[in-house]
């Protein structure tokens, strides 16, 4: 069958347009793939994070390649100011933690998310490692909770009550008792290898 010149023209036109569309998407995809990504994972979670002056939160982002100025700060912590080099086709990990200004890492016990991130990071200094080791040992008390003791009309019930506003730390003990003194409870807790004084706790007076 003979094909007219007009039909040939439209066939070639459609093929060319289709090729251009495919080329456009191929180039767009290549540009997207070559654009680097950055993983922001910083603790404490309320830290202010800026990259080249633009504010970020913890998460995954697409970012242009090149050298970037990073600033991370939070009240009560030493700030971080550094330059990073983000390369095309690569993913950059901005995983950082801030050191407490006074060296007291117990600040991280005020927020469970901040503590969890710190606990998951590598390349920690000696102070952070020591803090996490002691804190993780301390939190093992949850293995024996709830703790119930009754002796000659005096009783104690101890529960884990994470995140309660009555406590200064997210890992918190709730103590229900009819006793004025916690001496007997402290002795009981110590028999399991723990010290009640190491914990943030609050007491509720209840009748037996």
Descriptive notes:
The chain has three domains: 34 residues; 103 residues, Sandwich (Immunoglobulin-like), CATH 2.60.40; 61 residues, no CATH class. About 2% of the residues have low confidence. By secondary structure, the chain is α+β, with helices and mostly antiparallel strands. The strands form three sheets. A four-stranded antiparallel sheet has the order 3-2-5-6, with no helix packed on it. Strands 8-9-10-11 form a four-stranded mixed sheet, with no helix packed on it. It has four helices and eleven strands; from the N terminus they run αβββββββααβββαβ. A hairpin with a 2-residue loop joins β8 and β9.
CATH class of the largest domain equals Mainly Beta
CATH superfamily of the largest domain: Carboxypeptidase-like, regulatory domain
* Beta-strand segment tally: 11
Just name the CATH architecture of the largest domain. Sandwich
The geometry reads as: elongated
Oligomer: single chain
State which percent range the strand residues make up.
25-35%
Total tally of structural domains: 3
Major sheet characteristics: 4 strands, antiparallel
Number of helices: 4
Low-confidence stretches: 29-33
Helix-strand category? alpha+beta
Order of helices and strands: HEEEEEEEHHEEEHE
Strand order of the largest sheet: 3-2-5-6
Distance N to C terminus: 102 Å
Which range best describes the helical content: under 10%, 10-25%, 25-40%, 40-55%, 55-70% or over 70%? Answer: 25-40%
Whole-angstrom Rg = 30 Å
Overall pLDDT: 87
CATH structural fold name of the largest domain: Immunoglobulin-like
């Amino acid at each position: 069958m003979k094909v007219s010149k007009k039909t040939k023209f439209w066939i070639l036109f459609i093929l060319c347009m289709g090729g251009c569309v495919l080329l456009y998407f191929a180039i767009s995809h290549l540009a997207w793939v070559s654009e680097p990504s950055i993983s922001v994972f910083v603790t404490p979670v309320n830290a202010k994070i800026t990259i080249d002056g633009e504010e970020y939160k913890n998460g995954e982002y697409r970012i242009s390649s090149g050298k970037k100025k990073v600033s991370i700060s939070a009240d009560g912590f030493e700030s971080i100011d550094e330059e990073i080099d983000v390369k095309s086709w690569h993913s950059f990990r901005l995983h950082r933690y801030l050191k407490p200004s006074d060296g007291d890492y117990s600040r991280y016990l005020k927020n469970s998310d901040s503590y969890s991130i710190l606990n998951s990071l590598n390349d920690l200094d000696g102070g952070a490692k020591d803090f996490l080791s002691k804190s993780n040992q301390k939190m093992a008390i949850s293995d024996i909770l709830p703790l119930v003791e009754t002796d000659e009309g005096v009783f104690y019930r101890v529960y884990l009550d994470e995140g309660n506003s009555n406590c200064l730390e997210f890992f918190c003990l709730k103590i229900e008792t009819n006793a004025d003194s916690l001496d007997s409870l402290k002795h009981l807790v110590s028999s399991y290898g723990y010290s009640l004084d190491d914990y943030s706790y609050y007491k509720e007076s209840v009748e037996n």
